[in-house]
Amino acid sequence: YTFGDASYNTTGEYPYTFTSVDGCDSLVTLRLTVLPVSESEMTLELTTSELPYELKHNGETIYVVEEGTEPGTYWPEITIENGAANGCDSIINLTLTVKLGDALHLTDYEELEFWPNPIERGGKVVISADFSPAERTNLKIEVYNSIGQCVATHRPTGESLYVEDFHVSGMYLVKVTTGTGRLYVGHVIVK
User: Fold this and answer.
1) Secretion system C-terminal sorting domain: which residues (predicted)?
2) Helices and strands per DSSP (H, E), number in the chain
């Protein structure tokens, strides 16, 4: 707290002499009570597929984990104005862990191949697989970037199966779920 020409951060009485424009002096004593800061620890684990995520306190958004946040551990300090029982601000020391989305933790699948592979940005790949008519019915193609975000979903209707949603260099996971429920997975490298 600033009083006169000094700043104070501990409880106490602080006298100060103020001089008016007329030259008169006034002695004013500041009685300062510093309340303890309400501080708490919180741990939050999310996957990239859960982003964006809003952390709320009493119905108010106090922190947003943005879509596109890289996997890793973060330690933001969140201040909630007037959040403590005594009317003061409260602080939450958050340990935030963002993990890859569940879509990249696949089991029980068959390997999928593409050609050409690797490709240039903006290129397309053809899926090298021979699906039966039953498998082609309601076939779904999903494309995931390197941090586990689904960047495209297709339900092809034609004979040829291809994917062309590669606008950024990197490695992509392509997941194909057939109409019979079989799962195929492969990777595409974009130069």
Assistant:
1) 115-184
2) 1, 18
Whether the pLDDT of residue 106 is over 60: the answer is: no
**Beta strands per DSSP E along 34-136:** 38-47, 53-57, 60-65, 72-74, 77-80, 90-99, 110-111, 113-115, 125-128
* Rounded Cα gap, residues 154 and 134, in angstroms: 17
For the whole model, what pTM was predicted?
0.47
Per-residue model confidence as pLDDT tens digits over 161-188 = 999 878 898 889 899 999 999 999 989 9
pLDDT beyond 60 at 102: no
Q: Which residues of 19-30 are buried (b: 16+ CB within 10 A; e: fewer)?
A: eeeeeeeeeeee
Question: Cα–Cα distance between 125 and 46 in angstroms, integer?
Answer: 32
Write down the mean pLDDT value for the chain. Answer: 86
What is the radius of gyration, based on Cα positions, of the chain?
29
Q: What is the dihedral of CA 116, 119, 121, 125, to 10 degrees?
A: 20
Tell me 63's DSSP state: E
